[in-house]
Each structure stands twice: as C-alpha cells, then as structure tokens.
Specification:
Length: 175
C-alpha cells in the first residue's frame, strides 16, 4: 500500500511547529513521560504532536525522493521497453545477418567452383591452341607431301614403264 502523505496540510504543520516546537521547548521538562503523571490523554496528545512534526519534517525529505524514485521507475520502464524493442530488432538483424552470411558462403563456394572450372577451360583452350599451332607445322608438311605425291603421280607411268623394261631386260639373264 502507498503511504498517504497528504493527511495533514503544510499550513497546519507550520502552525503546530510554531506552537509546539519539539527542539526549542521553553520547558525542557515537558515530555510525554513527565506529562503521563498529570494526564494520560495529554501525554498521548504530546506524543502524537511530536510524532506528527517529526513525520512532517521527514516527509519534506522523503516526498521529493519518492517522486524522484517514481520518475526513475517510469524512466526505467521506458528504457527497459526500448531495450526490449532493441533486443528484438537485434535478434532479427542477427538472423538476417546469419542468412546473408550463409548466402555469402554459398556464393563464395559457387564462385570458387566457377573459378576452378574457368581455370580448367583456360588450360584446355591453351592446350587446344598449342595443338592447333602444332597442326599448322603439320599442315605445311602435308601440303609439301601432297605436292610431292602429285609430282610422283605424274611420273608414275614413266617409272612403271622404266621398271617393266628393266625387269624385261633382266628376265633373259636369270636362267
């Protein structure tokens, strides 16, 4: 339960403290214990007035502190609410970051695979270019060989005729 601080008004507390000052009593023997011998009601009333004045004095200190505490509690609740919202936002951002990191890793793996394939294709292209360059030398040789074969074809009839004449000439001398 909340303490009710507005039971007695400031005006009444000032009047009581002027009429019955606790620390500046003219009669120092005027205490609740001494007054108890004369009147129980007066002793209780004096105890109540002293307690009320002490409470009012402390209440002037406690009330601003209580107000500050309530403001601080409200600020804390607001800050905790903001903190919770930021934590939720942070969690969603972390989840998004994790997904993006996975996508980045997958993309890097795909890029590495494509780079390996590109390197392999470049190696094959270079080998094919070397082969084609090697075939260029072969082409020259084959062209020359074809020219020689054409010439040999043109001379073939004559060479066959010369070979058969030679064999005919040698045939008579073999037996």
């Amino acid at each position: 339960p909340e303490l009710r601080t507005n039971i007695v008004s400031e005006n009444r507390v000032e009047k009581l403290s002027r009429a019955y000052p606790v620390s500046e009593r003219k009669n120092k023997n005027l205490t609740a214990e001494n007054l108890l011998n004369a009147s129980t009601a007066a002793s209780a009333l004096l105890t109540w007035v002293d307690a009320l004045l002490a409470w009012a004095k402390e209440n002037k200190i406690v009330t601003p502190l209580q107000n500050n505490l309530n403001r601080s509690k409200a600020e804390l609740a607001s800050i905790n609410s903001e903190l919770h919202q930021l934590e939720v936002k942070t969690m969603t951002l972390e989840a998004t970051l994790n997904e993006l990191e996975k996508k980045l890793l997958a993309g890097q793996e795909a890029a590495a695979k494509l780079k390996r394939e590109a390197d392999e294709l470049n190696r094959r292209v270079n080998a094919a270019n070397k082969l084609i360059a090697g075939f260029d030398g072969e082409r020259k040789r084959w062209t020359e060989s074809m020219a020689n074969l054409r010439e040999d074809r043109n001379r073939l009839v004559g060479d066959c005729l010369a070979a058969s004449a030679f064999l005919s000439y040698l045939g008579a001398f073999t037996y």
